[in-house]
User: What shape does this take?
Amino acid sequence: MPEGKKDIEVPVAEKSEQPEVTAPTAGDQTISGKGTPGAKVNLALKRVEDIPIANDVAVKDDGTWTADVPAGILLKEDDTVVATQKEDGKSVSDPVEAKVTEKAKIDAESGEIISKEEEKEKVIKKERKKRQGQASPGKANLPAFTTSGENQESPQQQQGLKWSCHLSNPSGRVHAG
Assistant: This one.
């Protein structure tokens, strides 16, 4: 080694463990999770430019932490929360991400938690029921079509039998008259 120069050892700090984030739901006012007791957790909402949610949230002796979501920040479905942890004497952990999920929906009839798809199916079934009725001879003018496309009164209308209309799109409209 040339005279006057020395090798210097630079200690590399061990990385902190990643914290755990309990999946937040849309509209939550707090975010919580687990970490290393005594460590500090930082949280941000991942956007084009990260929005800080909380800094230096203390991890309790039982390994849990909870942070309040500041006023003005609304967690929406599919948002991403990013968390890091810093333990004493160690460098900051790699970030961990948690996706914000939809708010659980409670079915009014059964009181059970239902998914978005189950709720959608219930709406479709209700819409189908609304589109059912009864035709009375000479009263209802619900069109039936011949193969040539001309309007004609249906046999059900002529006999006063029940009719129904099932649509694959619940927002579709049925016009009678």
Remarks:
- The mean pLDDT is 78.
- The longest helix spans residues 116-130.
- DSSP finds two helices and 13 strands in the chain.
- The helical segments are 116-130, 155-159.
